[in-house]
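Archive entry: two folds, one per protein. Generate the first.
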Amino acid sequence: MKDKIFGVLQRVGRSFMLPIAILPVAGLLLGLGSSFTNTTTIETYGLQWLLGDKTILHALLVIMNAVGSAIFDNLPLIFAVGVAIGMAKKEKEVSALSAVIAYFVMNVSINAMLKIFGKILADGSIAKDVLDGTITSVCGIQSLQMGVFGGIIVGLGVAALHNRFYKIELPSALSFFGGTRFVPIISTVVYLFVGILMYFIWPTVQNGIYALGGVVTGTGYFGTLLFGIIKRALIPFGLHHVFYMPFWQTAVGGTMEVAGHMVEGGQNIFFAQLADSANIAHFSADATRYFSGEFIFMIFGLPGAALAMYKCAKPEKKKQAGSLLLSATLACMFTGITEPLEFSFLFVAPALFAVQVVLAGSAYMIAHILNIAVGLTFSGGLLDFFLFGILQGNAKTSWLLVIPVGIVYFLLYYFIFSFLIKKFDFKTPGREDDDTETKLYTKADVNERKAAKDVKNSDEKAGSVADELSQTISRGLGGKANISDVDCCATRLRITVIDPEKVNDALLKSTGASGVVHKGQGVQIIYGPRVTVIKSDLEDYLASVTEEHFEDDAAENNTADADEVKKENAASATDSKTEDSSTASDKAQDSDVESEPTSTVIISSPMTGIAADLSTAPDEAFAGKMMGDGAVVTPEEGVVVAPEDGTVLFVFDTKHALGFTTDSGIGMIIHVGIDTVKLEGKGFDVQVEAGCHVNKGDVLMKLDLDYLKANAPSVTTPVICTELKDNQKIRLITDGPIKAGEPLYAVDTYEK
């Protein structure tokens, strides 16, 4: 259980890294923009001619400042998307879109509740009894001030929904909404109610956060020491991001009014003050205490530890150890990335890491005591020190104090590490046994043995764990080596293969496909609306098995030579034709001997044009009735209407087709044109939405026929019934000119 919890928390911590990664860039833009547009700075250094108002550089810097501010102002949304992507197992782009939708839905729901309960007045103003700072504008929506927590709540929740439902299979009538399409739907529904709940819950949470921030602040310098110790101690577990982020980005790290606005979180307060630096005498050390101390041990302290490890290295290994330690030290000093150094002694000498934790924690406290207020974007390296310390001036940041304190820390690290390494003979870089390679260890080394044990077991289990359906599809396509691209539309798995001759149609049909269509190197496998789930499973399978499994698949698929595969495909095609011919003959015979149908449903034409039997469709899949039976209409007017009273089930993303069910229970697809999915919605103007009820003759969509005729292989439109029962048959009524609303075909039902 403990390992599982740690695993989840590690994933959460890693998911934070994606949105955090933008902060250095945003901070750089904001830092440069704010620093070099500051009137005092410009006048102090006599740079009016270069950076003064109305100069090109001034305009550019103003834009840079605005862009940096925009990123920090919208961090909650950025975190919502970033965390959702980081926590999603597969189909990450779907989780990102769902997170954006859920974020807006949640805040709109909160906004509605605030209005209902009178917290936001009719004129948009905030009621007088509302505590200042508790309501703010979120992407133009007045909502509760949830800060980055709001984004994290959305990101984690959407990721959980995504991982649970992205492969869901719904009943046939709703199958189009299954798989990845279900994720934004369920996210919308869930976060509508989350928004309602947040109205009642978050004020209490908000008060608790403020209280916690007050406790932390109230502990003074000891609280800062404790913060620093805990943060560094969590490095080996990868959980430090989980710990420090609330202090940086939420009210846990304190609140302060800056330029007339209430700002939450230590880092946010610093950058708000930076943006208003002309009116700030000295940046708040209470806000920067969560990171100012990092400059002391990252620029000075840890390099001292590196020098100690170099000095303690064996003479014959000093050169090799020196080059390794130098690169790690430079990374630490310039970028603030400490892991290469910390991990090198953490795993060979945990006692040294304990020393590092205590010294680093004390550095945070000392910086707080000395009123050092140097900000940062990501970590305490020289770049951030220059931008947010030196450039801002000692009067605002007290950056000069970092140097003498840093020198003391350099000496402390050097002598303590040297003593302990020699006293206990720690095997730091360069002190390894003669038969051991000199290297900088990483966390990966710690897990290497466990991973090695798992590899064999995972390889042995790969075949059994792998989806059998996906495995068969892979073999039918000629194996992994023959698959170039995997995609799908509403009903077809679209595969690009390298060698079409290796595709085994019979094997693919055995997976439940109603047909296989070849177009050059493209292979279309007809599965119906459940295809999105099949696509996801196939991608998972291809990503989960080793190259050896892929080779085995290909080998098994090609036990017979290519000629045999060709013969099998030809036989399959012949059998299909024979079956179709036999079926047609049977139907002809049945028509003579069968009794009258027990019921009949008339389906009218959805457009004006030329009606014909479905077998005339210029597409093998439709003509072969792989997706259902019906008829085709070649339109002469650019209007598609409801064929009967019924409900729109879905509209394809590319607008070229829609699902429809009549009030009498007949499920249909109206697919305008052939291969029109490639037009990506151009030429289509859909007038309805999924779920709406329409009457016969109501306009469903308008078409730009000239554009469609010029850009699509054909505008001939299949009008098909997708879920006919065994005792139901299609009977064409009109073959030739037809007007919208006139009978097209009948659905006859016979006794079983």
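Generate the second and append.
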Amino acid sequence: MKNVLINIQGTVQGVGFRPFVYRLAHELNIKGWIINSSAGVEIEAEGDESNVENFLVLLKNEKPVNSIINDFKYVNSDIKNFTKFEIKESNNTSIKTALILPDLATCPDCLNEIFNPKERRYLYPFTNCTNCGPRFSIIESIPYDRANTTMKEFGMCEDCRREYENPMDRRFHAEPIACPKCGPQIKLYNANKEIIAGNEVIKKAAELILDGKIIALKGLGGYQLIIDARNNRAVKRLRERKHREEKPFAMMFPSLEMIKKYCEVSKEEEKLLLSVQSPIVLLKKKENSLIAEDISKGNNYYGVMLPYTPLHHILMKELNTPIVATSGNISDEPICITNEEAFEKLNGIADYFLVHNRKIVRQVDDSVVRVIKNKPFMIRRARGYAPYPVILNEDVPQAIAVGGQLKNTVSISNGKNVFISQHIGDLDSKEAYSAFKKIISDFKNLYDINPEYIISDLHPDYVSTKFAQDTGLKLVQVQHHYAHILSCIAENNIEGEVLGISWDGTGYGTDGNIWGGEFLKINEDKFERFAHFDYFPLPGGEKAIKEVWRIGASLLYAATKDKKLVKTYYKDFDTDVILNLIDKKINSPLCSSVGRLFDGIASLINLKQNTSFEGQAAMDLENILSGTLTDDRYKFEIIKAGENNYIVDWRKVVLDIINDFTKNISKQNISAKFHSALTDIIIEISKISGIKQIALSGGCFQNKNLIEKTIDRLSEEGFKVYWQSEIPTNDGGISLGQMKYFSYLNNFKN
């Protein structure tokens, strides 16, 4: 006989782990018990020695598909002579380290039930089991039990109770379990809060969508705005009402087969679309699309997802056509999660409201992913992924990292785990700032965190920085681009010296200037600015980010010193003001940003002079590359400015681009030559550095052409290249990088 006490940590709650263990114990004649705790799962197993040994192996090898084991420990214990194996009531006495599962897409078994008229959950929009359904969006505290979720408001009927208490049923302790008799319900309202459909709600909603109406649908982690994706008039109306001029809309398709009619889909992209995470995936458009042009005008890609909740599945079955499914919010504000908030804020945008009475605890946007080098590449991390942690190599004291200003996320440390929040967004509005504070409080409560330290960006004007300064906690600050590279280091567990190439739009440098074209020598808690793009003025400061002609004029003036040429080249713009700002150094901060360089080049070739969303000009410069064939490239100059100090001079590139443009060389070829030049610079600086490990991070590397060319070229030259997959390379990864720096400080201190 043998008795072992087992402790398992990871994603082992809400995934059918306890019934799996229960069944395994019965198969092997194991006695004892299993219990959910705040730390994970605890098991005491007793039986024949060979059976216990087999039990330990199978626990790890045959675990439920959605479970993740991060830590598996066991010790021998005294024989207790148990007579049965039982599932005990959860306890809440240990430190809260259990991993909360993200919300999961509807599983095939539940789908079969939903569309089977003989099943009691036929067409029921809240069907779920231990393999799927809401998790993160409804949990209020851990351990993950029904009493700790918003489903506690719904008492189970006898049939659901029977399934819930049967260890052999796939709904055993499926905490959101529900059916038409006892679970949440849907209703359809008009903008005056009048019920217009009690029966056949979804059929009526589908009719309205096909009629060109805008529907506000209460989804999993918040509201979505739904329209027919083939109806350009409806798309234009939605853009006008939402004040979203050009930024592409995401779409939902009824099936993978239909997606393939409109988009090119690789095996890896198909895998992502069908995954339990079910994110929005960026897919290359096919020609002759029937999709409304204004959904993704001027872009080679669609953002596409499949239905991921029963409500979406039922609606899409009724519609059998693609729909726009975009965030239910006023632009630059968080998505609405309560019915009251939706009726208040979306009135004037939505014509009708498809709502339900299951509360959402926290906003969770749809995640956005693309495929880079046959791997997932995260752009926005939220539903399906948050709040999975990144696991560091060392324990870190409890702390909060508050990220940057744009695409904000926050991170909280608990042992080796760094829990990264869902995407919060830009902190430019009062509502976004409120959401930011709420999520910090939410994470602290979920994990019983009482931190001494808070980590922020260096930028004095970031809302997140000011928040950190006002908390009274011990403040640690991290340079923005260093944090970018550290997030890549943390995700990939890189050790040793690294050359970090951090290219983005803007970030506050240690010299007080705006950085964004950086080559950083990094050795754990220290970095050295090895090389950077030469500075150029941003006339008007932040205004230049939207009016990118200002950047184009600035680059041209810096390259030529010819005011007359600038005025002629930009004759339709008020260049006198710009030139005056630059000459007098008024509101013209110096900038080394590659992101802003992209903006300026887009302006110089008259691709884009004004933008309606961040990064639009750079996206356009990437999008025109499609089908371009040229091996030519522009030549940057690298200037040695001192020991371990190099400057990338872009002036000759600007002059060559102007020359090509005036000779009517195509914009496509100019863009291709510019992209190739950037890759050349990376190779050259990497060789000069003598460092073999290269880490890429920053928003510029969301450019598929740039990052794939860079990875290929560096690999060919014998460098070991690292980039990000699970965590955004944009500012959504900054909070992780901040926490990695804190882990270094703590590690060296101890």
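Annotation attached to the second fold: The first strand starts at residue 2 and ends at 11. The chain has a mean pLDDT of 93.
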